[in-house]
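Figure S4 source data
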Amino acid sequence: MHIRPVKSTDIPAMAETYVETWRDAYRGILPEAYLESMTVAETAKDLAREMSAAGVVSLVAEADEGGAAGLITGGIDRRRDRVYGGEIFSLYVRPAYQRGGIGHQLVTQLVAHINRLDIFTLKVQVLEDNPCRRFYEKLNGVRLACGRIRFADTDLAACTYGWLDTDLIGTTF
């Protein structure tokens, strides 16, 4: 497994990873019709747009046999939070590669990149019903708040996790 910055040629494989993981993680949470309407082509356009924005770091976990096993995008907090300067925008690891440490490696690499931008605090918003949200708790993320968001014509519970010091991510005490 090799984690590296995204190249434009990675976008199609990343879009496939994105669609696959959304359908896996959000089945039973988001409307089935929404999940089935997702296309790799549209997702690729959205990812390319997101990754080209200023202050965004995009990394891919490249599988040994080729293709994207996972991806992460993040950077400067989009809401310009005065406490949490960094944000994980998206983190997805294909189901076949989950529970192997790839997510942790992706977060660690993202943190290294944002630390170079003098950002040492981080947050992420995750759907409360997503069982993968416990991943952030295992990385010592503190639940900061929970509330309701509207997505795909559905009201959903979402929680925000944060780290006041990115050195605390994944540290055991």
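Figure S5 source data
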Amino acid sequence: MSVILLLSSFIYEAAGFAYADVIGTLGLAYFSLSEGRECFAKSKNLAISCGCGHD
């Protein structure tokens, strides 16, 4: 995520391309959404146990 932010800021500063920040933001949103989906999918498959033998 830091690389996306760094690259979009660098492109904006170097080239003056005003939409580089917007494109970087969309990249961050896509990455965050995919990571969130992965976390929820993994949490569905976890068995919750207190360790006391009463599952």
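The chain is about 70% helix and 0% strand. Residues 20-44 form the longest helix (25 residues).
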